[in-house]
Design brief:
The chain is an alpha+beta fold and 430 residues long. 41% of the residues lie in helices and 21% in strands. The protein contains 17 helices and 16 strands.
Length: 430
C-alpha cells in the first residue's frame, strides 16, 4: 500500500492528516505538520549519480574505477575516488592517479530517466518533497509516523525501494533541520543512513571540519584556517561580530547560526526554479576567444530555448567562470525588462565576458556557465512602450518550431557550427 493509500485509510487524530470528502466525489488531503522538534527531515542524495548509472547499466563497470566525461571528469565512482580522482579534474590527471581508470561518455538522457524514477519513489514516500538537483532532495516525513513508522524506518524503506526499483545506491541523512540532514547524508556516504537525534545534534556537528558548513568553500575555509579555526565547534565559540570581520557580515551571521544548528527553513514544495542555466567544461587547454564565443553561443541558445518551452522570461544574466587554479568567479547583469530572446541574452553575456576577458587570459578557464535568473511566467510581464515585437522574437519562434518538429540538431546557428561541442550539463549548485 502506498503512502497516499495509507493516508486515505487513516483518521486525522491518529496521523496529523485531515481527510475530507466533498459530495462523494472530490477528495482533498490536507497536511498538518507536527512541530519541528523531532528528527523528521530527510536529505536523500544519490551516490556518484552519473557513475552509478553507468555501473548499473554495464555490469563490466561494477566494482571498478569509473569516470564520466571524457576530457574533464564530470563524475567519479567511489572506486575512482579512492585513488584521489575528483570532479573537475582533466582526464589526464585522473589517469595518472588511477592507471586502470575506465572513462565513459556522458548519457544525460539515461541520467534524466533514472532521476525521474527516483523522484517517483520520493513523492510516493511523502507529499512534501523539495528537489535540490537532479540527484538529491529534502523530504519532510513529520506527518507520517502513524502511517509509515518512524523517520528512521521511512528512510530505510526509501533506500531499499530506490535500490530495488531503480538499482541505484542512495544515502539518507535524517535530522531536525535541513542543514543538519544534509550534513548527515554527507557524513554517511556512500550508501549509508545516518540519523541525528535532537539531543545529540551539537555533539555530532561540532567536531566536524568547517568545510561541512553551507557556504564554506576553499576560499572561506582558508580564511578561517588562517585564523586557527578548523572545526564547527570553534566557529560556534566565536562571537558573530568576530566572524563577520573574517568572512563578511552576511556569511558571518550565516555561519554563526549554522554552527549552532539554527536553521528555520522548512521543506518547500511546488516552488518553480528561480533560474535556468547550463555550463560546459573546457578542460585545461588554453582557449582562444573565438572558441569561448562559440561555447557562449551554444549555452545561451540552449538556455533561452528551454526558457521559451517553459514559457518563462528572466531579467538577470549571470556568467560563472572556473579558472585553471580551481578558483571561481561569478558576474551578473540585470536587464531593464525580462526576456527569453536569444540575441538579447547573448549580447548581455558577451558584455560580461568582455569585462572579464583580461582575467581569463591571465588565469585560464576550465569551465564556463551561463544562467538567467529572476524568472517569471511570460504572461505575467507588464508590457512597456513600444509594443512592437522584436525581429529576433520571430526568428526564435521559427527556430523553436523547426527544432520541436525535427529535433534540436536539425537547425543550428552558423556561428556555432564546427569546433568541439563539448559536454554541457545543467547548472547545479556548487
Amino acid at each position: 500500500m502506498t503512502v497516499r493509500e495509507r493516508i486515505r485509510s487513516k483518521t486525522a487524530t491518529q496521523t496529523g492528516f485531515r481527510v475530507e470528502r466533498e459530495w462523494g466525489r472530490c477528495e482533498h488531503v490536507f497536511v498538518t505538520r507536527i512541530p519541528a522538534n523531532t528528527a523528521s527531515i530527510l536529505h536523500a542524495d544519490l551516490d556518484s549519480f552519473y557513475a552509478s548509472v553507468e555501473q548499473r547499466d554495464d555490469p563490466r563497470l561494477r566494482g571498478r574505477p569509473v569516470t564520466v566525461g571524457g576530457g574533464i571528469v564530470l563524475a567519479a565512482s567511489y572506486e575512482a575516488k579512492a585513488f584521489g580522482v575528483r570532479t573537475a579534474m582533466t582526464g589526464a590527471q585522473a589517469r595518472r592517479l588511477c592507471p586502470d581508470l575506465i572513462d565513459v561518455p556522458a548519457r544525460f538522457d539515461a541520467y534524466t530517466t533514472a532521476s525521474r524514477a527516483v523522484f517517483d519513489v520520493f513523492h510516493d514516500t511523502s507529499p512534501l518533497v523539495e528537489p535540490m538537483s537532479i540527484d538529491e532532495a529534502f523530504i519532510d516525513v513529520s506527518g507520517l509516523r502513524f502511517l509509515a513508522g518512524s523517520p528512521t524506518d521511512i528512510a530505510a524503506a526509501l533506500r531499499t525501494r530506490v535500490a530495488d526499483q531503480v538499482g541505484l545506491p542512495i544515502t539518507v541523512g535524517v535530522a531536525r533541520t535541513k542543514f543538519l540532514a544534509k550534513v548527515a547524508s554527507g557524513v554517511a556516504k556512500p550508501d549509508g543512513l545516518l540519523v541525528v537525534e535532537p539531543d545529540r545534534e551539537l555533539a555530532f556537528l561540532h567536531p566536524l571540519g568547517v568545510e561541512r558548513l553551507w557556504g564554506v568553500g576553499r576560499v572561506t575555509a582558508q580564511k578561517l584556517h588562517d585564523r586557527g579555526i578548523h572545526t564547527v565547534a570553534e566557529v560556534a565559540a566565536m562571537p558573530a561580530e568576530a566572524l563577520t570581520s573574517i568572512v563578511g557580515a552576511g556569511m558571518g551571521r550565516q555561519l554563526h547560526a549554522l554552527a549552532h544548528n539554527r536553521d528555520p527553513r522548512r521543506v518547500v514544495t511546488g516552488r518553480r526554479r528561480g533560474s535556468i542555466g547550463s555550463q560546459q567544461a573546457l578542460g585545461r587547454r588554453r582557449r582562444q576567444r573565438e572558441e569561448i564565443d562559440i561555447v557562449l553561443w551554444r549555452l545561451v541558445d540552449r538556455i533561452t530555448g528551454r526558457m521559451r518551452r517553459a514559457q518563462r522570461v528572466g531579467r538577470t544574466v549571470t556568467l560563472r567562470f572556473r579558472f585553471d587554479d580551481y578558483t571561481r568567479a561569478t558576474r551578473s547583469h540585470s536587464l531593464p525588462q525580462p526576456t527569453a530572446a536569444t540575441n538579447t541574452v547573448h549580447a548581455t553575456a558577451v558584455a560580461l565576458l568582455d569585462q572579464n576577458w583580461s582575467t581569463i587570459e591571465a588565469r585560464g578557464i576550465t569551465l564556463l556557465g551561463v544562467s538567467v535568473g529572476n524568472l517569471d511566467d511570460d504572461d505575467a510581464v507588464q508590457l512597456t512602450l513600444p509594443f512592437e515585437r522584436c525581429e529576433s522574437d520571430d526568428v526564435d519562434d521559427v527556430i523553436d518550431a523547426v527544432r520541436d518538429r525535427f529535433g534540436r540538431s536539425a537547425l543550428q546557428r552558423t556561428v556555432t557550427t564546427g569546433g568541439d561541442a563539448g559536454i554541457q550539463l545543467p547548472m547545479l549548485p556548487d
